[in-house]
Amino acid sequence: MGAFHANDIDYDYLFKVVLIGDSGVGKSNLLLRFSENEFNLESKSNIRVEHAICSIVVDDKIIKGQMWDTAGKERYRAITRAYYRGAVGALIVYDITRSITFENVQRWLKELRDQTDQNIVIMLVGNKMDQADLRSVQTEDAKTFAERENINLFMETSALNTLNVNKAFTKVLTQIYHVVSKKKDDNHHYHQTVEPKGEKINVGGRKDVEITRENDFAMASRMYLLENGSTNEPPRLSSVDNFTIWKNRMIGFLNFVDSKLVETIKEGRHTPLMERSRWSYEDKQKVALDDKAMHILGVSLPDDIYRIVMYCESAKEMWDILIVLFEGTGDKEGETEKLWSG
């Protein structure tokens, strides 16, 4: 079945899926065809990550997929790596007319498995079937490789003429759902699955650290304003304008997290915390940042979004990504209020 836009509907599961592979293999157009049923002949190599949100229905459950298109060129690899974390599915794409892109699948596969959970669902995708007369990678060779490397799924596609595009994405999302369902049946917690209807989220897969979604971000907001001399109630983060205000207070808010919020969370949660560090733009040096203090920045967002934030190496990158994600999710009626207000 085809996908439908997910911003205007509720959902039962939210899965993050990444597209990886060499530059020029057609990742962007595969995603564009699946999400918008369009094809861009002028498509150029990405220099940043783009994403689309679509949904399918499996077993009467609405499965919402966040599909991320990662840059393929070597000089952009540093950007790409940050986005592997939190992914539960991946499409490794090669161009059937360029054998070098197939040879490089091995490197992409190693990088993917080094950065993600062992249960990640992987599909090998041979794209540009519309140019089959120029084929340099044989179907059987690709199938043999997939079997040897224990890659779950294999398919050949054409973003230009739509061949197998919907089928590929649908198979990946469906397989992820089946993996998650089986783990639930076995009473295991699949920590990278997002279940937005729950009242609590699990941080980084650790059962000993649970943070209530509803109120912690509001607590941080109020403490920050009070510490900075404000006696008024802080603005409810219910509009893009208010979000922009907070974006512009990045340094002040993060310094506040460093100095005040860590102790507050420790006192409230009584759990051991891992130390992390980030670059301080104000002090021009690496500073320690408690793991859970980073969590607070994304505690009112869906799990996979704040995990991306949590793993970023610098405060500026962390905040920039959060902004992109916020603006990219759409703003259906009440959604922003739900995510950002206390």
Automatic annotation (TrEMBL):
It is a lipid-anchor. Pfam families: Ras. It comes from the Eukaryota. Gene3D superfamilies: P-loop containing nucleotide triphosphate hydrolases (3.40.50.300). It is found in: Cell membrane. Its main location: membrane. Keywords: GTP-binding, Lipoprotein, Membrane, Nucleotide-binding, Prenylation. InterPro entries: P-loop_NTPase, Rab_GTPases_membrane_traffic, Small_GTP-bd, Small_GTPase. GO terms for molecular function: GTP binding; GTPase activity. GO terms for cellular component: endosome; plasma membrane. One of its GO terms (biological process) is vesicle-mediated transport. PANTHER family: DRAB11-RELATED. Belongs to the small GTPase superfamily. Rab family. This is Uncharacterized protein. It comes from Lactuca sativa (Garden lettuce). The lineage of its organism: Eukaryota, Viridiplantae, Streptophyta, Embryophyta, Tracheophyta.
